[in-house]
Design brief:
Elements lengths: L18 H20 L4 H9 L1 E3 L5 E3 L2 H8 L7 H11 L3 H4 L2 H7 L6 E6 L8 E4 L5 H16 L8 E7 L2
Antiparallel strand pairs: 1-2, 3-4, 3-5
Length: 169
């Protein structure tokens, strides 16, 4: 089996983002602002729909998470998948409309799209694969079929792994 070389990224200063991340964050912010404007929602309104309100020490009703909405609206960061789903639900859109797959993939660019690892001491050709890709349903079913075939043949499973390679598509 061929070995794949992993290319390491240069370390960033705390809080620094790659240019592609900055562009992604700004594009997401634009989409978020447009959807909020269409629905006549303030940042507080949106935060309250997602995380509710509470009464502060001054007796005022304040939306939880309002500051986080502000960070996203200003393009300072990109929400994780759980918060993307909450935002999409609160805005009554699909995640794919709020953040198309190219944006979602860019949010997780630090993780390889796929990887292959070989268990320590296993020489029978058994490897561990990990996939994080958007593929067609047809392709996903083919992959699932191949995995089920291996399972039926009783391919050994191992939790102890040695990294062999990572790839990007």
């Amino acid at each position: 089996m061929p070995a794949f070389k992993t290319i390491n990224k240069p370390p960033l200063l705390p809080g620094a983002r790659m240019p592609t991340e900055r562009a992604r964050d700004l594009e997401f912010a634009k989409r978020l602002r447009e959807l909020m404007e269409q629905r006549e929602l303030t940042q507080s309104d949106l935060a309250a729909k997602i995380w509710s309100r509470y009464v502060n020490t001054e007796g005022k009703h304040v939306a939880r998470g309002r500051d986080q909405i502000s960070v996203w609206v200003r393009g300072k960061s990109f929400p994780d998948n759980a918060n993307l789903e909450k935002l999409a639900k609160a805005l009554d859109v699909k995640v794919s409309h709020l953040a198309p797959t190219t944006l979602v993939k860019a949010a997780h660019h630090g993780v390889a799209d796929w990887s292959i690892t070989r268990p320590h001491g296993v020489e029978d050709g058994t490897v561990f694969i990990q996939l994080a890709l958007f593929v067609s349903a047809e392709t996903a079913h083919k992959i699932q079929g191949l995995l089920l075939e291996d399972e039926r043949r009783g391919q050994p499973k191992s939790k102890e792994r040695e990294p062999v390679g990572h790839g990007r598509t």
